[in-house]
Amino acid sequence: MRASQRLRLAAAAAPAEMLREDGRSLYVHLPFCTSKCRYCDFNSYAWSGQSLERHVRAVLAEARARAAGLRPQTVFIGGGTPSFLPAPLLGELLQQLDEVTGFRASASEVTMEANPESFDDARAAAAAAGGVNRVSIGVQSLRAPVLRAYDRVHSAETALAALRRARALFARVNADLIYAFPGQDPQEWQEDLESVLALGVDHVSCYELSFEPGTALTRMRDAGRFRAEEPERGRALFERTRALCARHGFGQYEVSNYARAGAACRHNLAYWRSLDYVGIGAGAASWLDGERRKNLELPEAYEQAVRAGKDPVAEAERTDPATTLFDALMMGLRLPAEGVLLERARRISGLDPAAACGATLDELIGEGLLELTPGPARRLRATDSGLPFLDSILTRLLAVLRP
Ligand code: SF4
Fold first, then answer.
1. Which of 208, 167, 175, 209 is nearest to 192 (CA)?
2. Helix (H, G, I), strand (E, B), or coil: what is residue 241?
3. The domain spanning residue 344 has which CATH number?
4. Taking the chain, what is the end-to-end CA distance rounded to the nearest angstrom?
5. What is the pLDDT of residues 204-223, one digit of tens each?
6. Hey, whose CA ends up nearest to atom 8 of ligand 1?
7. Which of 213, 273, 277, 348 gives 20 to 30 Å between its CA and that of 292?
8. Residue 348 lies in a domain
9. Are 267 and 76 in contact (CB under 8 A)?
10. pLDDT digit string, tens, across residues 303-344
């Protein structure tokens, strides 16, 4: 086994035992941000003076209706910018969420997302006192021109200070970073990543800059005012990231996520393993007992529905077997070390993955892009050479599962 594979397995090993297959996770979405970043396609909104108290009341009302007694095994407070809430309101949200769901006694991991400009001492203390034990800081870049181009509202210094503050209070800290800014110097990217790792974080998420439909950056690119980086340069930065993280003892346990041994994000692992989760808040998605659902996205529409005593659902469907199987492959193949547990994929979809994917699966294995692990608990996973081409692998699997 090569050193890189051993690192990948080490990073994934501990959390695998911490997540129960029959357990449930809880996601709570808070949609407001200081401003809207140009690359962002999340359900997030620049705050324009709406009542944050009223919004939190709606979130808690939905939690009482849909997550009472849930006792989640993991919790993720995301957004948006959860650290945008004033410290007392953040404390109240966590306190009442615990009274409703019992998360403090049941969850082994409680993550909160935070942005550098709002993650001050008071919010950090409120999060820790409220049961948060892992913080994810949106750093994105340590270069002023890049932060400006993204319309981020913080400086590199503020981001590094937020990471130090997080490390002082929380054992587990993630930094979100984006690479492949057009013309990015690979050496500068490496220095930035090293500066972040040197602060003692146990996890980094490194995403390639992407142009999602409807974002300001995509409109700028389409109007010729912003260019995308060449794909080969993006791939080279991806390889550089993998190698650098490996040298620092961070295993790549997901395409864009690297962690020290045992520090993989359990909540996200629950998604990638297709385990059940309940999503609360505007636009939040859920996957529960074979049903996918998504809430109303607009914060005002969401609040109105909850205030009227209605379910704020926008869409809900029981997925058909082929879609369920494809979703399980799409999520699980993002995990290079553990891949998809075929028996579980069969159990939740009712389809035998090998039979359903037929000759296409054999071809992908024959081409060295996917591999089957030996032994009784067979897993399908992307090889080192297949991982950068996950999108085209999934397109081929989709063509056979949903022709
Ligand atoms: S702070 Fe995060 S969620 Fe908010 S707009 Fe920026 S990237 Fe999107």
1. 175
2. helix
3. 1.10.10
4. 37
5. 999 999 999 999 999 999 99
6. 40
7. 213
8. yes
9. yes
10. 999 999 999 999 999 999 999 999 999 999 999 999 999 999
Residues 215 and 333 grouped into a single domain = no
Residue 225 sits in the same domain as residue 84? yes
Structural domain includes residue 278: no
- On whether both 190 and 267 belong to a single domain, the answer is yes
pLDDT 10s digits, 47-90: 999 999 999 999 999 999 999 999 999 999 999 999 999 999 99
Domain that holds residue 95: 3-272
| The predicted structure's pLDDT at residue 403 | 81
Are 137 and 119 in contact by the 8 Å Cβ rule? The answer is: yes
Spell out which residues line ligand 1, taking CB within 6 angstroms: 33, 36-37, 40, 42, 44, 79-81, 115, 138
Q: How far away, in angstroms, is 247 Cα from ligand 1 center? A: 30
Question: Which of 29, 40, 119, 210 most suits a substitution to test ligand 1, by most atoms within 8 Å of the C-beta?
Answer: 40
CB of 310 closer than 8 Å to CB of 66: no
Q: Is residue 27 part of a domain?
A: yes
Best CA proximity match to 217, nearest among 284, 148, 153: 148
43 and 174 share a domain?
Answer: yes
Burial of 115 (0-12, 13-18, 19+ CB in 10 A): buried
- Residue 231 and residue 136 in one domain: yes
DSSP state of 152: -
Q: In the β-sheet with 285-288, what is the strand arrangement from edge to edge? A: 251-254, 257-259, 203-208, 172-179, 134-140, 109-114, 74-79, 24-30, 276-280, 285-288, 291-295, 313-318
Is there a single domain that holds both residue 180 and residue 253?
yes
280 sits in which H/E element:
strand 276-280
Pick the atom of ligand 1 nearest to 138's CA: 2
From ligand 1's centre to the CA of 289, what distance in Å? 30
Total structural domains in the chain?
Answer: 2
CB neighbours of residue 102 within 10 Å: 16
Atom of ligand 1 lying closest to residue 33 CA: 4
Classify residue 285: in a domain, yes or no: no
- Please say which residue of 209, 240, 272 terminates a domain: 272
**CA 358 to centroid of ligand 1, rounded, Å:** 41
Residues 259 and 156 both lie in one domain: yes
Last residue within a domain, chosen from 211, 242, 272: 272
CATH number of the CATH domain containing 209:
3.20.20.70
